[in-house]
Amino acid sequence: MISNVVNYYDILEVHQEVSTEEIRRSFRTLIKKYHPDIHSQNKHWAESKTKIIIQAYKTLSDTTTREQYDRLHGHHLQKNRTRRPTKGSHTQTKDDDIRAQVRLILNDLLNGHARKAIEKYEQLLKDYDSVEFLLHLKHRDYIDCKFLLAEAYEKLGQYEVAIELYEYLCERGKDTHHRHHLLAEVKERIRNIYCRKLTRSAPPEKALGYYEKVLRLKLDKSESAFIYKKMAECYFELEDYENAQIHLNTAVSLKPNIQGLNKIKAKLKQQVPNFAI
Q: Which residue ranges form the domains of the chain, and what is each CATH number?
């Protein structure tokens, strides 16, 4: 089918009429841009990206293989670019449009255009009731797109949206078929958003809900102790001194010398008779 033809000219970001020298120049630029060492957080995606760039370059930089490629695929590529929607092709046209928009969003994210990517993403959600990226991207690109989109929302201070996307990735990361190397990074970002952003301006009862979600990430003992101490402080603000004591005891059992212990202990001693920890 036409949609399955790999357009090596598009991959190298050149026109079909360009010279071999221009192809070589574009190849060098793209290899530097997508080198795995530059994209350490998305190394597997970068390796896949450079692999297809190299494949495209090897085909188009050699006169013989380029001529063969043009004969085999040139007509279909051109037809794919210029075709018009016909009667009965509405579904295909819709899918093509969504796929094209999703690719633009991913490209904007990869090039650091966070605000532009979000604007396109939100417009896409308005234009179509339900858009599942997995249907329009290769698996690795799908995971990268979700991660980079969450990162974009985080950078723009839209933490509630960012956390929803990160938690989605965290849940998918439990599947052995998904990107385990991103799971630790995603968990860290979830923890940081909840603990450093959302809880700071939240009332104690809402902050407790955030801290409970952080505990589900299965943190190490030191991090868990910090969360339990913060929960003890929230319960103290709510004048629920019993739960404050219970959570503080849990924190101390995980890390006896936890920072800030004396301050909350002193407060509890003023409110709880025979307080001991």
A: 1-82 (1.10.287.110), 93-198 (1.25.40), 216-277 (no CATH)
